[in-house]
Amino acid sequence: MPRVTFQPDGKTIDVRPGTTLLAAARQAGVAVRTRCGGVAGCLMCKVRVVDPSTVSPRTDAERRKLGDDADERLSCQTKATKDATVLVPEDPLKAAVRRQLERQKEEEEGGLW
Ligand code: FES
């Protein structure tokens, strides 16, 4: 059974060969954004795979949507074939909130008072 590790969460799960990375993420409790339900329609489920040889080759749908050279993969189309490490991008909304909180903290620490 392939073992899939999701970073930066560090969560790991053993899955059946052929399980999509999106399904593996759900099983592991890792949030991957999606809107189309896994049919290569929304492009929101993009991830990076550290070693591309540990997952299935690009599907035709991925080639059409992302091209051949992109190092991103659609997690709903990519299947785990060996032990794989997957990099999940931070949710854009969470990233914006985090940056704002960091800015506020810096202002408070470096303030005039
Ligand atoms: S879930 Fe929409 S493209 Fe993968």
From TrEMBL:
Belongs to the adrenodoxin/putidaredoxin family. Keywords: 2Fe-2S, Iron, Iron-sulfur, Metal-binding. PANTHER family: FERREDOXIN-2, MITOCHONDRIAL (PTHR23426:SF65), FERREDOXIN/ADRENODOXIN (PTHR23426). Its cofactor is [2Fe-2S] cluster. This is (2Fe-2S)-binding protein. The keyword Iron applies. Residues 2-92 form the 2Fe-2S ferredoxin-type domain. Residues 54-73 are annotated as: Disordered.
